[in-house]
DNA sequence: TGCATATATGGTAACGCTAACACATCGGCG
DNA sequence: CGCCGATGTGTTAGCGTTACCATATATGCA
């Protein structure tokens, strides 16, 4: 067992020849301490390289300065940027982050949430997809008075405040953009029809088609090969999905991909078949990852303000933690923005 | 102030009509407890949804089950994958992760390390670039008996165990691959000559050229525009660097990029100039990010086993924490692997 | 029957810190 | 001169948990 030993308040007190309480006062700059004693204590602190034990402090004060962040998977660039922006706000206000990624595992989700709870974090930011067990756990936590903010989740129960982007609208706009270019055969890549229903981006896709009198054809909805569930969709999923769509006798002329990586996979598959983008087939992505501006052709996509969402979520959480805000759940929704690049244009003539 | 209230051992003890110590025994499954009492206690625990306070436990037992992870920036896919693989091992062994990303800020690095220390983490995994202040802090921590494992860092001081990949060799192999194809004018994109010196990938690049009697020309070393330091190099850096190289009267015929994103930026810049890859100019990346197989053309690159490094680092750290291993610092180095794809081929004839 | 051992439970103190209170000493002022 | 508030320091207790010791009954065996 690697044993660590650390000096305590008492050690400092002995060296400075004062009571522990006085040392505490120096550290917290609270109460009265004479200049002379303060200096003596400071010197002892420096000498021993003393750092207060946050565990003991938290136990005594019944509050921590730690926030739990629950993310789906860290490879997803959305998660990364979110974590970074949340952390920035936390650090500025003297909080630290306890992080857990679930990687689609309910077990990991439970383990992570338990760890948060056991360590009595001051609050939690959740950015995972809803699960039954997860929602129940969160609900238990809120009953104990733990502030929670969700990011990018459906308006579920159990949650105090909610930050999200209008994915539905973003998808709607993207698909309407394709329609306005003259596309009538528009496919979706990113989740099976079964799982897609839960996704707002997919709903926006469907609603845009309906609004313009176009069909949502089942064969034009391409999920991952093994239908692995509603998790993040990858390059390989996009590639495989596009291949399936291109094998159809009645091909789509445009693709709405669930995210940029899926779009890039689709792009790659089309290119490998010798097709021209956007001449033969148009592609729209979602998320505006940095790379989307550098593909060939650059990808038309929808931007969601990820960092803003993270910052806002952190701020809202801290407001709850510090008791600046109480009462009703709050909801903040950010707009998405269509970014038209070269991967979309009017379709070539096609046989009906 | 959002106040949380949690039941304690004492609450359970009262309900189950036993002493707190007995409850503790039930929870930890230590010592003797009769079946009947155990059941009574269990029922009380379920009724109140009691969860032991990890803070109090840690304070008493003088050990935590929390590991600090210090990362450069989370957007970097290497960091993401590393964090994920470390976490997996930690969770399996009942540990949780305290995470901090430095984003090139010495101040954030210090704040993060202090937070780790104040919370008395059981150990630390560091994957940031060396800084003077950071090394000093780590050295102080080791003096206190805190186990530390570094990943991907130089063999610096202050650190117990070290996990790394042989970046030098990977770069050497990649450049030798270009040379074997007949390239003689090979450029580097990713850091200014000043900062590149510290990078093993750059050293491998230089050494390969020297070994084959080729020059390392200063004008063929392209760093980011503002020379922003040794941090991660981006798509935009690659794009801008390639533009500068293509403006030279004496152009390179091949590019060794510091990482895949830089390579993709370079690829994009070359394409925008109407150049053919690899016909006009060959490009090699580094890291084998998923996307590198899907660019056009797919990118020749060097793979480093990121997840293995993370898992190994976590294992080594846990071995130290649990006292299974003591004494001398250990070093583990993983091999990189050249992955030849379509972005490299024999150069076209060029005027000398 | 007596005594060692296994089984079962409780009491006390301590981990490191700080809120709350107690107790000084000092200057100022009616 | 006595009283008040400001200033400076110490004492006590408790946050929730568990290590350690004490106690009590049950069981086995000579």
What does this structure look like?
2 copies of one chain form a homodimer. The N and C termini of chain A lie far apart (73 Å). Chain A is of the alpha/beta class and 352 residues long. A 6-stranded parallel β-sheet of chain A has the order 2-1-3-4-5-11, with helices on both faces. In chain A, strands 7-6-8-9 form a 4-stranded parallel β-sheet. A two-stranded antiparallel ribbon of chain A has the order 10-12. In chain A, α7 links the parallel β3 and β4 (148-151). Chain A has 3 domains: 9-52, Orthogonal Bundle (434 Repressor (Amino-terminal Domain)), CATH 1.10.260; 64-165 and 305-334, Response regulator (Rossmann fold, 3-Layer(aba) Sandwich); 167-304, Rossmann fold, CATH 3.40.50.2300. Chain A is 43% helix and 14% strand. The model of chain A has no long low-confidence stretch (mean pLDDT 91). Chains A and B meet through α4, α5, β2, α6 and α11 of A and α4, α5, β2, α6 and α11 of B. β2 (96-101) of chain A pairs antiparallel with β2 of chain B, so a sheet runs across the interface. Chain A binds a DNA duplex (30 and 30 nucleotides) through α2 and α4.
């Amino acid at each position: 067992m690697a044993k660590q030993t650390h000096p305590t308040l008492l050690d400092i007190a002995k060296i400075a020849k004062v009571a522990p309480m006085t040392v505490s006062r120096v550290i917290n700059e609270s109460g009265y301490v004479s200049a002379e004693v303060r200096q003596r204590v400071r010197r002892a602190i420096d000498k021993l390289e003393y750092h207060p034990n946050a565990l003991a402090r938290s136990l005594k004060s019944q509050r921590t300065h730690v926030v739990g962040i629950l993310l789906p998977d860290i490879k997803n660039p959305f998660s990364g940027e979110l974590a970074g922006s949340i952390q920035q706000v936390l650090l500025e206000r003297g909080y630290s982050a306890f992080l857990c990624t679930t990687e689609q595992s309910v077990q990991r989700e439970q383990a992570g949430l338990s760890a948060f709870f056991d360590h009595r974090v001051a609050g939690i930011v959740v950015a995972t997809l809803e699960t039954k067990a997860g929602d129940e756990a969160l609900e238990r936590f809120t009953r104990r008075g733990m502030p929670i903010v969700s990011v990018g989740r459906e308006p579920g129960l159990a949650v105090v405040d909610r930050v999200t982007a209008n994915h539905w609208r973003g998808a709607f706009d993207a698909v309407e953009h394709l329609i306005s270019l003259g596309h009538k055969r528009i496919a979706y890549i990113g989740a099976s029809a079964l799982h897609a229903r839960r996704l707002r981006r997919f709903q926006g896709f469907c609603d845009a088609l309906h609004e313009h009198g176009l069909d949502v054809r089942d064969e034009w909805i391409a999920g991952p090969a093994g239908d692995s569930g509603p998790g993040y969709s990858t390059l390989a999923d996009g590639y495989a999905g596009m291949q399936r769509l291109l094998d159809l006798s009645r091909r789509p002329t445009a693709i709405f991909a669930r995210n940029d990586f899926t779009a890039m996979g689709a792009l790659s598959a089309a290119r490998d078949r010798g097709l021209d983008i956007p001449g033969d087939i148009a592609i729209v992505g979602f998320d505006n990852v940095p790379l989307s501006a550098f593909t060939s052709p650059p990808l038309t996509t929808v931007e969601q303000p990820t960092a803003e969402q993270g910052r806002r979520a952190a701020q809202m959480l801290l407001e709850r933690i510090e008791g600046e805000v109480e009462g009703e759940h709050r909801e903040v929704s950010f707009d998405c923005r269509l970014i038209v690049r070269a991967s979309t244009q009017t379709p070539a003539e096609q046989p009906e």
